[in-house]
Amino acid sequence: MQTLTEIRALLHARGATPRHRFGQNFLHDHNQLRRLVTRARVAHGTRVLEVGPGTGTLTEALLEAGATVIACEIDPVMSAIVRDRVLPMAGGRLDIVEGDCLDGKHHLSAALRAAIDARFGGAAFLLVANLPYQAATPLMLNLLTSVPHCSGLFVTIQREVADRLSAAPGSKEYGPLSVQAQLLARIDSFAVLPPSCFWPAPDVHSAFVAIERIDPPPTHNPLELGRFLQRVFSKRRKQLGSVLGRGGPWPTGIDPSMRPEQLNPHQLLALAALHPTPIE
After folding, report:
1. Residue-wise pLDDT tens for the chain (280 aa)?
2. Which residue, 79, 86, 139, 230, could crosslink 73 as a Cys pair with Cβ 3.0–4.6 Å?
3. In terms of domains, do 136 and 237 share one?
4. Is the pTM of this model over 0.90?
5. What is the C-alpha separation between 44 and 246, in angstroms, rounded?
């Protein structure tokens, strides 16, 4: 794996510096990188999507563990570094997709979808990545709700986002992300990373999170559930009756005077089934 000195040299050789607009904070702590790969149980033949590889430090660790990797990188300079440094040592187990991983907030980009279909087909794969902060939430939600053969997400994210994933009803962090993630997956925030693990050091702490899909899921229409959650949580301080109408129907234990943040994920799922939200 690359040392911090090597990472700096790779950028210096191309006259480049980390770009804030792309969320480039490179995880260079080798012990933490190995911890992430180990927690994801990456082994020979594991299929992995990595978003935001940067100079390819984690990519190298994934390949060393035996994975087949699709690395999606928005920055052409970083893509070139991975292509020149990592691709020759990959033994045909690395595809590089240059461009944004998302088309808007709700869909994977066409290029990334095509690469996943071509390399993985319909086989299960993992997301293992040091995610750029601005892409983390929409990417995780998209994979959870729309890509069922992504069986697990093992990622570095901002600690505040990790808190939202596992937030309990009634807390200020509890919202649509919490509900969808907890219904569709098991959440394990297994480490907090100080800024010193990254270069340049961010202003916030980060966290390692494992998100492992529940099979079978409690809902086969997560997109409709997501629309319902956005509908009620966009007015989270209002009573449910004000948002949905007081005439019901209402599941047992839920009444119109309650607010969405008071309901646990399974209660919200039951309520969503009775109040389908039309596609706008």
Report:
1. 899 999 999 999 999 999 998 989 999 999 999 999 999 999 999 999 999 999 999 999 999 999 999 999 999 999 999 999 999 999 999 999 999 999 987 789 999 999 999 999 999 999 999 999 889 999 999 999 999 999 999 999 999 999 999 999 999 999 999 999 999 999 999 999 999 999 999 999 999 999 999 989 998 889 899 999 999 999 888 999 999 988 878 999 999 999 999 999 999 999 999 988 766 5
2. 79
3. no
4. yes
5. 56
* Distance of alpha carbon 72 from alpha carbon 143, whole angstroms: 14
Cβ pair 263, 176 in contact under 8 A: no
Same structural domain, 180 and 250? no
Same domain, 150 and 250: no
Q: Hey, which residues does 154 pair with through a beta bridge?
A: 128, 210
The domain that contains 198 carries what CATH number? 3.40.50.150
- Give the integer Cα–Cα distance in Å for 56 and 189: 24
Residue of 274, 235, 218 whose CA lies nearest to 251: 274
- Distance in angstroms (rounded) separating the CA atoms of residues 81 and 87: 9
Of the candidates 195, 213, 231, which is a domain's last residue? 213
Phi, psi of 177 (to 5 degrees): -60, -45
Residues 235 and 261 in one domain: yes
Same domain, 158 and 95: yes
Q: Domain range holding 260?
A: 222-274
**Inside any domain, residue 279:** no
Residue 227 lies in a domain: yes
Domains contained in the chain, number: 2
